[in-house]
Design a protein that fits this description.
By secondary structure, the protein is of the alpha/beta class. 30% of the residues lie in helices and 22% in strands. Helix 2 packs across helix 3.
């Protein structure tokens, strides 16, 4: 077998680190696919394509036409549609597939969590009385806040929320993680936040807000992940590299 061809569905720090490690080995051909939702994506260590595929069947065709040997789903834990498309494409084509999923955050002593299944459910759980809400779910689901205009919202995202929300009491912060515990505590105090709405994304880059909430006694309404797809999952870059080495031992051995 020649150099294995690998398609990574990315957009996460883990995807970038995995691509970096594979590029350093230099014994496989890697293409990193980004959805294009972020206006200024971080520089990547391998060839990159931007934009969606047009559905599960189109992704399957892309894999077949491109002669790919492995599909790695390293998208965000809440990118349910592309993960479902990846599972379908792998099953349809018979191409090997791995999902790289960082572990969920776990409730610790002092955490005041309420778990819900969606952002609309989180907004509803805020209740009827006005509250100061840190909506830390990114811009994709921010518009759901319009269903509860009585609250004061602080919304943080990498790119601007477009169009701006039809709310009287909303402030925007444009920042990209990782964030620090001290910075998050300052942000929560400055805006008098009494509840955080967050997705259980896992990982270290945005965990500081959860630590800050624990320290300050602030409630967190935590949006749970959807059930995992049927694709075999690993939870670290190292585990993904080991799985790739197991799949392609002759090709990968030269770079170990």
């Amino acid at each position: 077998m020649g150099r294995p061809r690998i398609l990574i569905l990315g957009g996460t720090n883990e995807a970038r680190l995995l691509a970096e490690a594979l590029a350093a080995r230099d014994d496989c051909d890697v293409l990193l696919s980004l959805a294009g939702r972020t206006e200024k994506p971080a520089t990547q260590p391998v060839s990159v394509r931007i934009g969606g595929f047009g559905g599960a069947a189109a992704l399957a065709d892309f894999l077949k036409v491109g002669g790919y040997d492995l599909l790695i789903d390293a998208t965000h834990p809440f990118a349910e549609r592309i993960s479902a498309n990846a599972a379908f494409a792998a099953e349809t084509t018979g191409i090997a597939a791995i999902a790289l999923r960082r572990p969920e955050w776990q409730r610790l002593r002092g955490d005041r969590w309420r778990e819900v299944q969606s952002i609309p459910a989180a907004i509803e759980a805020l209740g009827p009385s006005p509250r100061h809400v840190f909506l830390a779910t990114g811009r994709q689901g921010a518009h759901h806040a319009e269903a509860a205009p009585q609250h004061h919202y602080l919304i943080r995202s990498v790119d601007p929320v477009e169009p701006p929300l039809a709310l009287d009491n909303v402030e925007y912060v444009l920042e990209r993680g990782p964030f620090t515990l001290g910075g998050e505590c300052d942000l929560l105090r400055e805006h008098h936040i009494d509840v955080i709405v967050a997705k259980n994304s896992g990982g270290a880059a945005t965990y500081a807000k959860i630590e800050a909430a624990r320290l300050l006694g602030i409630e967190v309404i935590m949006v749970a992940r959807a059930p995992a797809s049927i694709v075999e999952a690993v939870d670290t870059v190292e585990a993904a590299l080991a799985a790739i080495g197991h799949l392609f031992p002759p090709a990968m051995k030269r770079g170990v």
